[in-house]
Amino acid sequence: MRKMSQLTFFLFAALVSLGACQQCSQGWTYFQGRCYGYGNTATSWASAQVMCQSQGATLAEVSTTEENNFVSAIARTRKGTCVWLGATDIFREGDWKWTNRRDFSNFTNWSGGEPNNLNNVENCLNMFQRLNYRWNDENCNSNCNFICVGPANNHLSAAEVPISK
Ligand SMILES: [Ca+2]
Ligand SMILES: [Ca+2]
């Protein structure tokens, strides 16, 4: 009996800590149905992608002004010198693709003169502090911070959680 009330308390506490429908893991920020996380380590584009995947996420993909404002605000707040996003033209020069969404044509936010494919080695997309976090193509082996995007948690309302049995 005592065990059950402890369990009930635990579940209650868990619900309270979920707060008003907490949808993202700690350290991740909710926006329009998904969760965004900032990678504190500066690393290569490929390694950043792997780190995102290890969290069930991918490098952030941006297809609207609102989304771009949100993601660049994270980069700006965290003061990343450069911040990877999930697009590359490594397979065909000039043919930019998001890792998952593929379609790149709807929205872009290149800084003036970018992408410039400097020295013929710039094939990965980042937001660049020096360009006020507008988009820049960069050598994929450069070390940059990164932003991942992953699915939000399912909503759990009190009615749906079995408190005790
Ligand atoms: Ca390129
Ligand atoms: Ca560039």
From TrEMBL:
PROSITE patterns: C_TYPE_LECTIN_1, C_TYPE_LECTIN_2, PROKAR_LIPOPROTEIN. Residues 1-21 form the signal peptide. It comes from the Eukaryota. Gene3D superfamilies: Mannose-Binding Protein A, subunit A. Residues 31-149 form the C-type lectin domain. Keywords: Disulfide bond, Signal. InterPro entries: C-type_lectin-like, C-type_lectin-like/link_sf, C-type_lectin/snaclec_domain, C-type_lectin_CS, CTDL_fold. SMART domains: CLECT. Pfam families: Lectin_C. This is C-type lectin domain-containing protein.
